[in-house]
Amino acid sequence: MNEILLSSQIMPVITGCDLYTAQEPFFHADRTFLYDVMIYVISGHIYVTEEDTDYDIAPGQLLFLRRGIHHYGKKQISKGTQWYYVHFLADAQSASIDTSASSVLPTNGVLVAPVLPASGILASPVLPANGILTSPVLPAIDGVPADTRAAVVSVPKFTSCPANMRPESSMTEIIDCFHSDQVSERLKANALFHLLLTKISFCQESPSKTQQLSRSDQICLFLDSHLSEPFSAAVLEQHFFLSYKHLAAVFKKEKHLTMQQYHAQVRMNAACKMLKSTLLSVTEISEQLGYSDSLYFSRCFHRQFGMSPSAYRKAQLLLY
Fold first, then answer.
1. pTM score, two decimals?
2. Domain 215-319 of CATH type 1.10.490.10
């Protein structure tokens, strides 16, 4: 609920960030902020309520507060509590917030974020009733609508960072870049923060050493590493010490396609990469992918993509 969306087409814009240590006990500010907020606690606890949900942020935990949503403190935060914070504009909604008197860029090409008053809250622009600012429509490229090209993920609302993904070092660099007088460094701060948000969004989906991969994922990893070899039921049985019938049933149930179909897809995707990034001939690519007959490889490729490998290679040049 009230999650922040991270888009591949919109760079988050930082409006403020720092490391702070509470000099005296206090309650979290009662506000409806114009910016999204990230809180990462180093020591102590931060207590904040968003709408009707109470959060107790312990060391090593992250909370993201959505702009336009009322949040406040119910419980006192202790002196000495230390945390990183980032105020930012994320997802496509940020594109419509005007930080200048007009839409014209200044001569240096950089829009400067507005100066916050002592309260830390800007009185304008006014959010609509639903708390969401409408984003501009992105243009289509090569006839493909922008919304079909975008990759969008939800940033976890409240999460613990794995030991190998603690953001302290990243935050130190982001803060230094943001407070730099160099335009290039301030731009770098936004890029680094986008990378950090991406890592946070996907770190929970990456299996840890203590988490067992599903059987179908194990099969995918095996097939990925054997894409240059013909599909073999016998090899799968020998590797997993299970019958092919059982493996096939589990894979189809979890992945909604057969192992042969997955293996073919992996090989064809690899062929696409090689056609775009190497000077290898179609015959050489087919041999590297384990096809003994280049004509059969071409037929498989045409069946998958609706064109021959040579036509695909020429089409990619037109997209440049």
1. 0.55
2. no
